[in-house]
Amino acid sequence: MRFLNLRDGRISYELHGDDPAGALVVCVPGMGSVRSSFRFLAPELAARGYRVAVTDLRGHGDSDTAFDTYGDEATGADVLALVEELGGGPALLVGNSMGAAAAAWAAAQRPDLVRGLVLIGPFLRDAPGGTALRLLLRLMLLRPWGPALLGAYLGRLYPGRTPEGHTEHRAAITAGLRSGDRYRAIRRTVLETTHAPVTALLPKVSAPALVVMGEADPDWKDPAAEAAWIRDQIGAEVLMVPEAGHYPHEERPDLVAPAVLEFAERTGRG
Q1: Those residues with Cβ within 8 angstroms of residue 269's Cβ, 6 or more apart along the chain or in another chain
Q2: So where does this one cross the membrane (predicted)?
């Protein structure tokens, strides 16, 4: 494990692949998740000669919990800082859920540092509900019931196959929810994140993109329609993954990893 040192804290990450000349890939998990979410995809990319950095979000996993800000823009800035730390790219950004929003933000802000996007279960706009939904979330995430409710919600995002290593991955997530400081940071991430700034910047995203969406993703009433909306916004390719929910790269690595590898090769190695 390594750390990216920032002004108000550290971001933890792992580096897969030992070739310093390998093209850079940065993988960013979703809200509430941790870097082991990429336990299947990162080794596959590294085996093909890529240098793969897999991060934790602010306040998640082994990252610090004392940051002033959380959300898409802060995470996107962290991603860009990591790309520069590791040689300046341009890098392929692979983001899941909120991590996908951060990757899109980064691509709009610094197209010179981003050569491609893989957006997995992406949230590039806010879910319907507005103020009422935010008030409900505030109530749901209060202690003492908040950690259990959030953990249960994250668990239901796997409606398909139970992936290998799932028990250990879920244990790492649960440990974060049980930690006072870490849960406060995770709760702030949930409550302070709005995808509106990312939505506004989508016309500036010029990097080639692949959207990977689980056919049974519970976060969307119609996952295929959401993937089509993103396709129309940024000209992305779309892969709909059967027997998968919000984490198709975990539930169906047999389908997702080959598609990502093929996309990575087509978008070049920097």
Answers
A1: 23, 50
A2: none
